[in-house]
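B., you asked whether I could sanity-check this one before it goes into the benchmark set. Here's the sequence:
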Amino acid sequence: MEVGPAGVLAPDGLRQWLADRGEPCGDARAALAAVERRLPEALADPELGPMVENEAALLLGAVLVTAVDGARWIVWPNGHPVVRIGHTELDVSAIAHDYVCRQGEPLTAVVDRYRR
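And here's what the prediction gave me:
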């Protein structure tokens, strides 16, 4: 099932946290770069910390949909939102989890790989 932007949760907590610190907070690569720079601080924040992984996933998805031609949100039958780019479905939750918890690929690198 495809969904539009209104059909997917927005990373409002993360965006507000970034804005409060004078960082970019829109649906642009710069916001993901700010998350990468400030990840230790975000994780230590008592309010944002427990939500960072999910919020970063939603922001990654929003940036991909904005920056990559043809990228769009879809929802798997189990209700899990992913971003489809061509024939590839990106599980942005898994990507964010790997980055936040396992020092995986930076979120900006994911965007750079698909942006032309």
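One thing to flag: The longest strand covers residues 81-85. Otherwise nothing jumped out at me.
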